[in-house]
Description:
The chain is mainly α. It has helices at residues 4-30, 33-39, 42-54, 60-75, 81-105, 111-131, 140-163, 167-191, 198-231. Helix 1 packs antiparallel against helix 3 (42-54) and helix 1 runs antiparallel to helix 9 (198-231).
Amino acid sequence: MLSDTKKNIITIITIIYFANALIEVVSEYYSNNTIIFLAKPLIPFLLIVLYYFSSERRNFLFISIMFFSLITNVLFIPKTPICLFYGLIAFTIHRILLIYYIYILSKIKNIKLFVAVTISLLAIFFYLFFASSDIPDNSYALLILQNILGAILGGIGITNYILNDNKQNSLLMISVLLFLSLQMVIYVERYYLTSIFFEYIRPLAMALNVIAFYSFYKYVITVESNYNRFAL
């Protein structure tokens, strides 16, 4: 049970999180790189702080996921091929840890449904992949892996929600759908609309990023609360 002091701290950090997120989204629209370099890394960092005060378990996997998210956010700010390449590596590690952590928290209870959902998502991701001709050679294998990992992530979230639409699976579903939407928006921005509507794509991607990670944080806290309740 959280004390009143901790609840107040959590409320304050949550307000700071969304205030910083709003600043980041507006900065993306106006392409203010100075503010972006300051505000963007704060998004996962504030979630780590929020998780520290909210959780009684403080799982190192959650902190690791947010750490690699922070690195990814920094590396995706420049538009250079080398930063994109290393950003994809950090994002791949982040996605693998994310899937592993979600699998630990929410086991797959119907393999057939999971496979069906995953294959459907793979078809969508690989259609976009093979329709693009501007993918750098050094990013080709990483993007294929990203498509597979994204489909697996979606398969876990959607399958668990279909089988049991309780609070934790609803939060997981929201988070996963936002993560997949973010992946598709970034993909379209990088390889389809590099100049067209750029001022709208970046703010949209960051808005999805902010809500997706906050939903994931709420999902983790909900699962941990259920564990604590059943342990009593």
